[in-house]
Amino acid sequence: MARTLFGYPQRVKDGGSEVHPDSDDDLRGAEIDKVLDRNWNELLQELRVAETGTQILTGFLLTLPFTNRFATLSHGQERLYLAVLIGSVVATGLNVAPVAYHRILFRRRKRRWLVSAANLAARAALVMLALDSAGVVLLVFDVVVDRTAALVAGGAVLAFLLFLWGVVPLVERASHEEGGHAAEARRSPGSTSAP
């Protein structure tokens, strides 16, 4: 099995020349670079979308202390507000991290690392955005209605986002991987496994 870094085949030195181990797609050299370039561009587009939501949420949170109603928050609501604010800033940092990585590593031939690190940062940012969105709903419902309604609404939002952003694509990936293994087993000569 080829050594990989976050799903990308690694270049290995073999007697002074670079060897690109086979991946599932049999990619080599320039093809890997094209895939990495495409993946980098797709990640940047995704980060732009996520960053807009994060910026709007952070901007909303930053304005709250300057409203008249903020002074009426309970001590617990103030703590929840601060936790959600910090989470929103962390999500912003995670969304912007790939830009910082790229600026520091520009023209250093680190595209493989950039794509992998940006992928991890984007995933973590989505988790933070889901938590922050649920936290904001929790805070607003707690202020406007009551704590029980807040817990129900915040939990529902978190469950919905985790399902939509996490479960749905994981189910698709699992079904694709199962289908790929079955197809591979059918193609393999001498395979004893049933499709």
Question: How would you characterize the overall build of this protein?
Answer:
The chain is mainly alpha-helical and 195 residues long. The chain has one domain. It contains four helices and four strands; from the N terminus they run ββββαααα. The strands form two sheets. Strands 1-2 form a two-stranded antiparallel ribbon. Helix 1 packs parallel to helix 3 (111-144).
Note the gap between the termini. 22 Å
The global form is flat
Q: What is the residue-averaged pLDDT?
A: 80
Number of helical elements: 4
Largest sheet: 2 strands, antiparallel
Order of secondary-structure elements = EEEEHHHH
Helix and strand arrangement:
Blueprint: E1 4-5, E2 8-9, E3 12-14, E4 17-19, H1 29-63, H2 75-105, H3 111-144, H4 147-187
Antiparallel strand pairs: 1-2, 3-4
Kindly summarize this structure in a few lines.
The chain has helices at 29-63, 75-105, 111-144, 147-187; strands at 4-5, 8-9, 12-14, 17-19. Strand 3 and strand 4 (17-19) form a beta hairpin.
